[in-house]
Amino acid sequence: MNVLRRLAPILAPLLALLIAAVVGDALILTFGQSPAAVYRLLVDGTLGNAYGIGQVIYKATTLACTGMAVALGLRAGLFNIGAEGQLAMGGFAAAVVGLLLPVGTPALLAVPVCLAGAALGGAAVGAVPGVLKARFGAHEVIVTIMLNFIVLAFLNWIVATRLHVPEQLHTPDIRAGAIGRLAGAFPAFHGSAANWTILVALAAAGFMAWHLFRTRQGYELRAVGLQPAAAESGGVHVGRVWLRTMTLAGAIAGLGGTNFVLGYKQYYEEGFAAGAGFIGIAVALVGRNHPVGVLLASLLFAVLSQGGLAVNAVVPKQMVDVLTAVVIIAVAVTVPEMQRLVRGAHGANR
Amino acid sequence: MTDSALEAIHIVKRFGSVEANRDANLSVGAGEIHAVVGENGAGKSTLMRVLAGLFVPDAGTVRVHGRNVTGWDTRRAIAAGVGMVHQHFMLVPTLTVAENLVLGQEPTRGVRLDLAAASESVNSLCARTGLRVDPSRRVDALSVGEAQRVEILKVLYRGARILILDEPTAVLSPPEVRELWTVLRTLKARGDTVVVITHKLDEVAEISDAVTVMRAGETVGCLRTQDATPAAIARMMVGRDVVLAGDLVRHGDHAPGAAVPDVARRVALEVTDLVVARPRQRPAVDGVSLVVREGEIVGIAGVEGNGQTELIEALAGLRPTEAGSVRLNGREIVAFDVRARADVGISHIPEDRQRRGLVLEYSIADNLILGLQHRFAHRGVMQRDRVRRNADRQIEAFDIRPPRPDVPARALSGGNQQKIVVAREMGRDFSVLLAAQPTRGVDVGAIEFIHARLRAARDGGRAILLVSADLVEVLALADRVAVMYEGRIVVTLPRAQASAEVLGPYMTGAQRGAKLS
Amino acid sequence: MRRLIILAAALFAIHVGLLLVRPAGAEVGATSGAVNVGVVFDLGGRGDKSFNDGAYAGAERAVRELGAHVRFVEPGEGSDREAGLRVLAAEGMDLVIGVGFIFSDDLTQLAREYPNTRFAGVDYAVPTDSKGQPLALPPNLAALKFREEEGSFLVGALAALVSRSKTLGFVGGMDFPLIHKFEAGYRAGVRAVCADCTVIAQYAGVTPEAFRNPGKGLELALSQYQSGVDVIFQASGSTGLGVFEAARRRGKLAIGVDADQYGEAPGFILTSMVKGVDAAVFRTIEQVKGGTFRGGVFQLGLAEQGVDYVYDEHNRALIPDSVRARVEALRQDVIAGRITVPSTR
């Protein structure tokens, strides 16, 4: 029984994946295709060759950042639906900084400056719901949703009226601050969008783990999320923690925007990562709000996203969308079930 | 009375590696009120849940009126007339009393809910049982005592004739407890059987016909209440002799602070004309002035809801104050936030440990530094070895069980959870301790321990402001007793002049008058 | 806990069982022999009743008539465009088509990387250097551009000829050069047949959102009809649905765009200015099959049947024969080069 209980955290996602797989089987069969062949196509197109792996790495980089932005909020008891807007603003800020820097600025200077710009851009968007919640008790879910609309509309407007290339919906190429592709060091990745921004995401995960579990602010952040009243009597200013957390979450989501802007296209394009902020919610959920879990979950959803393209020839794209949704729902259902079981065992000591 | 309504025979119930019940036996006679006592973690709740069909036992037999019903589920238990009233209410706050009662078996006319019929049947049930609740009120507008009555009614509405109540008095004020006893006696009078879990021995004596004592998952004895003394039951519960707070009161054994005249001691805490506002109502704390000197315990007695909670929270910095001054050792601290107050010497044992006192998912070690986290961090990084050493020291000093710093607080019994709070708040430098309901929901062994700690701190020259809904506790500990009523201190008396008889009228508002010290 | 493990095992067994099912007719991968074509749609993809659906129709026709083997890819986010093109190119497709101007950069880059694969871009925007001069395209890339101004010219003339109020309306989506082409051609067409007519032109906005705002379309169209306009040409994506609604409410006429939009408001749609995306896609596939594919920029106008207006049994009643004859004469003038339609305002 003890061994089983240790298995519980793994069993939940496993069960979720199995449920998704069976639903996927049924869907594929309704399209008159063979499940085995479609899954093979999915795996071949993602993990079966270096290009596919590169694409998965690229997509996982963005999703890891938005996933962490959501997970960090949840750790403090905040539901950050705003990663979408924070990501876009981060990418836009990186592009603007990259455009303002003079041509030939050494990468060693330009890349950190662009990254800082992205973090600041995302942080600014994240701070708004933080302030409104801390000051006026405005619910962060509503504020972040509305802010997504506002930020995206604002960015569309400014790009369309001031910054776009003729007949296109993107800014001109940045002058400095480009991050190299992985293919530069590993030629096998040739053609894939994977780039060294993955290191930024890994560093952010490392920072998040350290911040949450090793620092005083992390101790207070988790306490606020678990038991705000107790944190308050422990001398924690709950509002300040909310503000700080949302700002930090926004910064991490903003860094995710550099994956496309600095690492892939070297320009900001309207809707460049549409949906990544929302999938970030699923990534956080499946990753159990733990940095390592978020990294693994971002790989899972990246495989599904890239796999969707690979199987698109034989089944509609919506099939993979449905599969993604089933994973999310299955995790949402199985995880609390597991927690109940694990807690039930503790409850005996009460 | 001889045939058993409810029997549990050799019940074993395991959760993983933990045996919550290992050989539990219980025999409840028909038509009697049967108390089940034991320390927290003794397995009382588990046994009750086995009886009510919530848990399936790993071994043993459950019988109802002689019929073997082992392993039944709640639905069949209810059908057989066995219902359980839980410690934590399971009501829908936004529905009315009547709607809550009929939930799951609503009377309908066609497909529509027949609320008139629901209300009617609830009214007649109230009349039959003497449980008075207005069926049309919303549950979130009810007091705790009323909500509990609704829980009892809910079980009765489903036809229960054997009621199991899990620590019903833990959340009630003394007058509400007296009303509950009346209700239980009414039920007994109409032939119902009642099982009550408690760990307050005076309640056992007052209400029950028989008492079963549990310790460490086993039932260690069953006595007729008239044959048992509180001391004997306490000994069975903890397995050793215990000094009971009530004994001190009864035997006049009370030891006040060292015999130095009050006025000669330094004033540690001075509160003047403190006002704490409430939205759209008169202030919760309405001009309270009081003084706590070094080396004394000032006890605030009173029926709950008269501003005690707000007073303590305002003093701790958790609630904004409208007016007034708070001085600590002569220094005005009314503008200080929680951490600043803690740093200048205010310690606070909050009344609701699960909400205010602990982060239940945090480990014992992490809970032992809550509020002190800035002192266990160097340049913003937690010093984990110091946190660990602090935990080892406190766990030993306060006998927290299990003695494992990594165990989450949620896994501990109520008494041990409270010991974490007490260890944290008393195990550091402080000059004034605000102790709100320091022993609520805690077993006798832990009560004895906590009381001893409070006295030791007092004797060491600390000032303690004690708030308790338990008058016995106030009388057992305080050197001076104040009564709070409707946001004001209506009387302050030296311990020698205070007694339940003297204080009672002040607590109910029948008598007013202030004596300032 | 044990139940959940059993559940997991059962699910696993079902899954393995289903994996073994092989429905008849299931097919996967490219076929040899036939022309292999890959089509990557724009975000939004199929079902737009516009150029994505047009490209789909053209490709489906190639499947029926040329025996082509076609794979479709619908991208999910920004990086999927390049990934979709690349996956198809890497699979050895003979022709890879990107539908929408947004593919321009990606197509240029991939055409250089895969010189032996042919690429085509619908609405391809030719990149320019810093002085505004167009850059050379790779030889294996065909840019399929449409002379929207020529089709707009004909519907402008048509509108002016049926108008009684001599006041014509234009509702554009996003205010940018691509849509200015429509407005310029429309104005020229009106002026060609009616020197004293006036044209009121308005745009729904300056962001791409302006193509998805039917409410704004309704508002603009109602105010134009109010001020005496009796025919409105809309070039505004789904914003145009609001224009049609206004026509229905006021009993006035509207002109559709891209595809035949008669069905959106039967009786109130004078005609539609259609882009021959289907024909262009079909012809490109045909050229690949016949070995006559060439790279370069292809401006598809009236002469190439790249643009046209709808005249069929539905709207015949709305267009008198004399009007029809006059418009057809204008068509011949444009094809013969006697009239040059402006593409900028």
General description of the model:
The complex is a heterotrimer of chains A (350), B (517) and C (345). Chain A contains 14 helices and no strands. In chain A, helix 1 runs antiparallel to helix 14, helix 4 (83-100) packs antiparallel against helix 5 and helix 7 runs antiparallel to helix 13 (291-310). Chain A has helices spanning 2-30, 35-46, 50-75, 83-100, 107-136, 140-163, 197-214, 216-226, 228-233, 238-256, 258-261, 276-286, 291-310, 317-347. Chain A has two domains: 1-33 and 316-350, no CATH class; 51-314, ABC transporter involved in vitamin B12 uptake, BtuC (Orthogonal Bundle), CATH 1.10.3470. Chain A starts with a helix and ends with a helix. Chain B has 517 residues and is of the alpha/beta class. Chain B has 18 helices and 24 strands. In chain B, the strands form six sheets. A six-stranded mixed beta sheet of chain B has the order 6-9-10-3-11-12, with helices on both faces. A six-stranded mixed beta sheet of chain B has the order 18-21-22-15-23-24, with helices on both faces. In chain B, helix 15 (414-426) runs parallel beside helix 16 (444-459). The longest helix of chain B has 16 residues, at 174-189. Chain B is globular. Chain C has helices at residues 2-19, 51-66, 78-90, 104-113, 148-162, 177-193, 214-226, 240-250, 277-290, 321-336, and strands at 36-40, 69-73, 95-99, 118-122, 141-146, 167-174, 198-205, 231-235, 253-258, 269-275, 296-300, 307-309. The interface between A and C is large, with 64 and 54 residues.
